[in-house]
Amino acid sequence: MDEFTAWKQMVYNAIFSIADLDFQKNAWFNNASELSSSFVETISILYDDSFFVKFLEADSWKFLKLSNKLHEEMSALKNMIDAYNEPESHKAILEDPNWLAIVFQARKVILLFDEEIKYKG
Asked: Which of 84, 88, 108 is nearest to 97 (CA)?
């Protein structure tokens, strides 16, 4: 696996956790079997561990060999996350229509990702 394939997998996995409400419910309400235990960690895995901003940069993107459509949808996801005002509790986040819109956008990204690189989960 080359470094770009590994990087794509890291970003995919991070976005998948944002797209998966069941994962969030389990992870954010202290289920020790999950990798992420809070909203902050879920977002941090995407931004800090997966270098999402760098992933979207033009210089990186040309080596990743992904479509402009996927880039547009990922950029939209990034903009939505950047604009998100986190409520006080995990329960409030999971009920927040703005968070649910982010979850929906993450699902769109995952579907496109699956079409382009055939990752499954």
From this structure: 84
Cα–Cα distance between 100 and 20 in angstroms, integer?
10
Residue 20 lies in domain: 3-117
Work out how many domains the chain is built from and give that number. 1
Which SS3 state, helix, strand or coil, does residue 27 take? helix
Whether 50 and 11 have beta carbons less than 8 Å apart is answered as: yes
Mean pLDDT for the stretch of residues 34-48: 83
What was the pLDDT predicted at 61? Answer: 76
The larger pLDDT score, comparing residue 74 to residue 35, is at: 74
- Predicted pLDDT of residue 121: 40
| CA distances for 65 relative to 10, 28, 62, 88, 97, angstroms | 16, 34, 6, 39, 33
CB 30 within 8 A of CB 22: no
The C-alpha atoms of residue 4 and residue 94 are separated, in whole angstroms, by: 32
